[in-house]
């Protein structure tokens, strides 16, 4: 296969998982190449996602690595088979590449969990909220670029109406619900939109109130995407310079625990809806 000019986060993940299988088998790249009957450069290029890999090659490598986890091998093989260009590719070179990686991650996720401490989750934002957020960026975005980013974020939200088994669980701190990205009307419309979206059977919204005890130290804004098998779960952390994709088991374990603490601090669904309504009335 020819070398790729563009490497996506999902393609990198496939290469990373193949490397993990090899290392778990205790093989060097040279030993793996010899066992698989291919050039050592092919092993390194595949693990670095510089070239594609076929389903047959994935299964052959997994066999050489003595991986007996059939669910994982099937999931990796499915990733290798992907040839479709997702809708997000229409926006390549129009928005930052990290946005495309995020849309692809959401598209393939079995379930999504998010915690937001000072922002409304992107998939629950109204168009006016989205526009207000992008208008406030520093330096200011040119008008044309701003509109492209607004359209892209709204397109991402279509996943909530996907006709497949899928759950989106959002835990939002009360602070995020009270922060006004624009004026009172935009804020009230945003809260009403959250209530309407939470009526969807695949969407759950819960709120962490200001007066909850023992919430110090949990200020991370994160997205946890569950894969087809636990080994392919992914955490996306927001940073000042863009999103960071995390997939090491220790990292996944840590953020699963963070989410459990967050969920333990949040109100129930009905109590959360009542709090959202009270905040609306106070605006």
Q: Would you give an account of this structure?
A:
The protein has helices spanning 9-24, 29-36, 40-47, 55-64, 70-81, 97-108, 127-135, 143-156, 174-178, 184-197, 249-265, 269-282; strands spanning 111-116, 167-173, 203-208, 222-226, 234-239, 242-246. With 283 residues, the protein is of the alpha/beta class. Strands 3-2-1-4-5-6 form a six-stranded mixed sheet, with helices on both faces. Strand 4 and strand 5 form a beta hairpin. The longest helix has 17 residues, at 249-265. The protein starts with 8 loop residues before the first helix and ends with a helix. The model has no long low-confidence stretch (mean pLDDT 93).
**General form:** elongated
The main sheet comes to: 6 strands, mixed
Distinct helical segment count: 12
Helix content: 40-55%
Ranges with pLDDT <50 over ≥5 residues?
none
Total beta-strand segments: 6
H/E order of the elements?
HHHHHHEHHEHHEEEEHH
Largest beta sheet: strand ordering: 3-2-1-4-5-6
Distance N terminus to C terminus? 58 Å
Structural class assignment: alpha/beta
* Proportion of residues in β-strands: 5-15%
Mean pLDDT: 93
Return Rg in Å: 21 Å
Concise structural overview:
With 283 residues, this protein is of the alpha/beta class.
Task: Record keyword descriptors for this entry.
single chain; 283 residues; alpha/beta; six-stranded mixed β-sheet; 12 helices
Write the layout of secondary structure elements.
Elements (H helix, E strand, L loop, with lengths): L8 H16 L4 H8 L3 H8 L7 H10 L5 H12 L15 H12 L2 E6 L10 H9 L7 H14 L10 E7 H5 L5 H14 L5 E6 L13 E5 L7 E6 L2 E5 L2 H17 L3 H14 L1
Parallel strand pairs: 1-2, 2-3
Antiparallel strand pairs: 1-4, 4-5, 5-6
